[in-house]
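Appendix B, example 12.
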Amino acid sequence: MKYLSTAGQSPPTDLLTALTNGIAPDGGLYLPEKFGQVPSTTLSKIKGLPFDQVARIISEYLLGDDLTSAELDELTHKSLNFSIPLCQYQQNVFGLELFHGPTLSFKDVGARFLAHLLDLLRKKNRKTLYILVATSGDTGSAVAQGFLDKEGIQTVILYPSEGVTPLQESQFATLGRNVHALKVSGTFDDCQNMVKSAFLDPELNRQIKLGSANSINIGRLLPQVFYYFHAYGQLPGNEPTLFSVPSGNFGNLTAGLIAKRLGLPVRGFSAATNINDTVPEYLITGHIRTRPSIRTISNAMDVGDPSNLARIEYLYNRDVSRIRKDIVGSVHSDEETRLCIREIYKSTGKILDPHSAVGYLGIESGLLEFGAGPSTFLMTAHPIKFRETVEQEIDSALEIPEIISSVLSAKRQVVSIGTDLSELRDFLIESKET
């Protein structure tokens, strides 16, 4: 399979190059040259299967040209060996729990898959690879755990000095070894721009082999397609569902669009955001107006310049009228989000983190746009990751999962830098020399 740049100015490339480069030479993001079609017989076959088996079946349609059957077996079994249950909230309303991986975030799916995939493809080339990651929270911990102790890989995580919870910071800043935490005196957008600039810096790339593990990396995006099929596999009946997707950098929604392109029965998507509403505004006006991000309680979605919008436009030939046929925007304030957490807890006893609550709130806009039927909202993080906010709203203490108890007391190993690329460049070159 060849991979194409969304900017259209770079030649097609192979999977390993797309994975390690992250961004195409022309500044675009990679997408597969073509998409296969999952037949209805296969859709019937995935009903009731565990997540790793669904992933194995669907992986044939995305990676079957590049990996052997045995490699796909190993990849899906080792990286996606945790459950993703579908839970009912109301009649015809379901929540897909994506937070049962090792760092309790949906990002475990993409980060673990990418780490194992790169490890598989790089067995013949052990030149040190520096993975650069910008995070507003959960990406950092998922990538850090996924790449921890991978031979020949150094992982460098950039995160804003404010806006990341203490638990999120502890999950990636206490590991050490081949994981480096850089606290940036700026916003997530500053961190993301530094990563993008590093990839486009000829001198830095001459000295150091860089790779990306953000949602801009195609190796993180593709495995997210699998859990859309897994949701369908757990729904009663075969009726197309609405997906309400809490969205920040829009990788999750892009994966859903790819799933639909592959043949998954979907009525439509609700792009549910907090007040960082670049994409919902674009869906109304047809114009992209990026802006500085605004801090909210759903901090992983505090993105004013979402990278994956380039992929969404590419999939629809930059025709916003076509995009509107599949996606409706839905914007929600912190006050709405808090109220949703309280009301869901009061009515069902279930606990939502702020991001999942935004996903739940997005269902209404989706139903108005795409009609009645089953609706599935994506639950992207365990409530404990946003403990202070959630406990305040439900007026009750959360039980701390054993998987994260140890990191809360561990010592953090952090380097503070500014927002200029030169500081990141200096850190990378110095770390190479030590």
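The chain has a mean pLDDT of 94. The chain has two domains: 51-106+218-394, 108-216+409-433.
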